[in-house]
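Database export, one record per block. Field names are fixed; values are copied verbatim from the stored entry.
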Amino acid sequence: MNEWTDASKVGSILGFAVFFIMYIVTIGMIFFDISWTSREFDMEIAKDRQKMTELGMDKKMPELEAELAIRLSGKKEDDLVDDQLMGEAQKIDRSSFGKYM
């Protein structure tokens, strides 16, 4: 078996120390990147809201906020449709509404 010399002990200790330090740095960089990306998204949202205000969409903001809340809650567009109305609309053929087009 190979014997451990002083150089091999120092080399293994330094190797594991560098590995451990780089492991900690990598984890730190992951959290830093997540934080940085979150700040970038917040800045982009603020810019978009400012642009919407400049375009005069601030009057419709309560309506947009309500629709956004519905979408974020996981409801689909189909959940908001009147099923009876859609059922009746599917029964109509093209000849009955074609004269209005």
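Remark 1: The chain has a mean pLDDT of 86.
Remark 2: The first helix runs from residue 6 to 54.
End of record.
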